[in-house]
Design a protein that fits this description.
The complex is a heterodimer. By secondary structure, chain A is of the alpha/beta class. Chain A has a single domain (2-219), classed as P-loop containing nucleotide triphosphate hydrolases (Rossmann fold). Chain A is 34% helix and 28% strand. Chain A is built from ten helices and twelve strands. Chain A is globular and about 55 Å long. Chain B starts with a helix and ends with a helix. The chains are: A alpha/beta, B mainly alpha. The A-B interface holds A 47-49, 68-74, 77-80, 82-90, 92-93, 97-98, 100-101, 104-105, 128-129, 133, 151 and B 1-2, 73-75, 207, 210-211, 213-215, 217-218, 220-225, 267-269, 325.
């Protein structure tokens, strides 16, 4: 995936300004940055949820707007923060929707197998017949991830997947992200607020500031004292834990 | 797992179909004199079109309400709460006001129906699609604007009736209360054809309803052309409501009652079942209600009054008992 000079304006205010980067395949890429830096907007644009004003999002050799939505949904999945599903839906039924791009409403036995595997992968077997509005936040998030797994796409985009989760569930979520990449070979792009999660679990970090890319590179390249203080305008100390640069800010 | 739920729902729907058939049979046959062939025929001639009109209305309003709720992702909103009924009342009054009750447009049933449908269809589509676009489908705003519009339309309508000739007003009033009598077979045929066309034109979008209820982002993620789909469905809903209202007059709360009863009973996300359930509930309410009105209250109170009173209470109940999301 190649992004060239991507720009977005809201009411004359430029929120994303001429952003260009390319996404390495089969890696975990975290988008970080302060509030309002434009990372979620970029995520929206590379997943076709938000239309871009100018620039190009080249996905597998074709502009993202030129893809047929149905075809694209077999290659790229996005999970946003807003998931207020009003319907009475069981976990299994939700995961079944992941097969919609392939089979529509008619679920084949082959689909059933994929759904079973996705549910097992997320360890949701015991919950699969429960309604999702009866689940806890962490379980619901896992159910949504299971749906994304059933969608069976090369690219998985997650917008703040650890939002509203406690430390235990948030850490588990990040481990799942790592497994999606390592075991299932997916390219995972996520928007994160916790820089230490980004540092510990991703391969590349793309740091935004004021609608522009402040720094893009491997974790080691981006996670330096100077870079972080410049991006977030606070003082940082870096520690080396298990070979990963983790930060303390105050 | 979900297969058993699907089967249980099929059973419920089957029972409801039986109830509808029972109501319909009772409606046709209660207090009919079987021994006199001519009286029997006369009764059938009066009752059959009314029954058909009620069934069509139930289907149009029931289906449209469910679809509307799913699009807007909220189960306490119905098209009627957005002022579509008062829009109809206004349009109908305006036609009589400007053309006169003795003019061709108002006097001929077919023509007056056609004028109502066309005017209502166009204005409702323009107004509501604009509102939805402006408020970005924000339910609270839409509801608020709808409430304001309701009083806005009613005020204009009241003003018109105040300056109107009393005789004209008298003849107008009869057509402003929902009624299932005096609808000729040409209109029934036309409505059936129109509804059939709407359902046919929207068959692809209707199949996507299940996915649409996951929300905009999820629907797009799963490869649905969201904006186009919503636009077409809203147009269909507006047309269905316009046709039903122009045919029988405004019935407040009917859609709200039957759509929610259907959701409560079936507890599913499958729209094929929800729409069917809602339509069947509508048929039971309308035919059963009309049966009671005709034979217990001997026409003293129109059925729409019962529906409005009952619906109002039910609406309060829904608002007060709704779980926090």
């Amino acid at each position: 995936m190649q992004v060239t000079e991507l720009t977005k304006r809201y009411d004359g205010k430029t929120v994303v300004d001429c952003v260009s980067f390319s996404i390495p395949k089969g890696k975990v890429i975290s988008l970080i940055g302060p509030n309002g830096a434009g990372k979620s907007t970029v995520m929206g644009m590379i997943s076709r949820l938000i239309a871009h004003d100018s620039g190009l999002v080249d996905f597998e050799g074709k502009d993202i707007g030129k893809w047929k939505s149905r075809e694209l949904s077999k290659r790229l999945a996005i999970l946003t923060q807003t998931n207020n599903i009003q319907m009475k839906l069981t976990v299994r039924e939700l995961v079944t929707f992941g097969r919609f791009p392939y089979s529509g409403s008619r679920v084949t036995p082959e689909d059933q197998k994929i759904i079973d595997r996705a549910i097992a992968y997320m360890e949701l077997e015991e919950f699969q017949d429960q309604f999702i509005d009866e689940l806890s936040g962490g379980q619901r998030q896992r159910a949504l991830i299971a749906m994304v797994i059933a969608q069976d796409t090369e690219y998985v985009l997650l917008d703040e997947p650890t939002n509203n989760l406690d430390i235990y569930h948030a850490t588990n979520m990040m481990k799942i992200v790592r497994r999606l990449c390592d075991e299932l070979g997916k390219t995972v792009i996520l928007v994160l607020h916790e820089i230490n999660y980004a540092a510990f679990y991703s391969d590349y970090i793309c740091a935004f500031k004021d609608g522009k890319i402040a720094k893009f590179g491997t974790v080691k390249e981006v996670m330096t004292k100077e870079n972080l203080s410049q991006i977030y305008q606070v003082d940082f100390e870096l520690l080396d834990i298990q070979g990963k640069p983790l930060s303390i800010y105050y | 797992m979900n297969l058993t739920a699907v089967r249980a729902n099929r059973k419920k729907l089957l029972i409801m179909t039986c109830l509808v058939l029972l109501c319909a049979a009772a409606y046709l046959l209660v207090e009919v004199q079987f021994d006199n062939a001519r009286l029997f025929q006369y009764a059938m001639k009066i009752r059959t079109p009314k029954l058909i009109v009620m069934l069509i209305t139930a289907f149009a309003i029931g289906g449209a309400s469910i679809v509307f709720q799913s699009i807007i992702n909220n189960t306490i909103v119905t098209p009627c709460l957005l002022g579509m009924n008062s829009l109809y009342t206004l349009i109908h009054t305006a036609v009589v006001f400007f053309a006169g009750s003795s003019s061709v447009i108002a006097a001929s049933a077919n023509l007056s129906f056609a004028v109502d449908v066309v005017l209502m269809g166009i204005t409702a589509t323009l107004i509501y699609s604009w509102i939805f676009k402006k408020t970005r489908h924000n339910v609270l705003y839409v509801l608020l604007v709808g409430t304001v519009l309701t009083s806005f339309f009613s005020s204009i309508q009241t003003t018109l009736t105040r300056v109107m000739d009393p005789n004209e007003y008298d003849s107008l009033l009869n057509t402003l209360v929902a009624s299932f009598s005096n609808i000729n077979s040409e209109i029934i045929l036309f409505v059936l054809l129109l509804l059939g066309l709407i359902v046919f034109a929207l068959r692809k979008e209707l199949a996507l309803l299940d996915v649409l209820t996951l929300g905009k982002e999820q629907a797009i993620n799963l490869g649905v052309d969201y904006d186009r789909c919503i636009r077409r469905l809203l147009l269909g809903v507006t047309l269905c409501i316009a046709v039903a209202t122009a045919m029988v007059g405004p019935i407040s709360f009917l859609g709200l009652i039957i759509a929610n009863l259907s959701r409560q009973l079936l507890k599913t996300y499958r729209h094929s079942q929800l729409i069917l359930g809602s339509a069947l509930f509508g048929m039971i309410v309308l035919v059963g209600g009309q049966l009671i009105v005709e034979h217990v209250y001997s026409y003293a109170v129109p059925v729409s009054v019962f529906i409005t009173v009952g619906g109002g209470l039910y609406f309060l109940y829904l608002l007060l008992t709704r779980k926090k999301v």
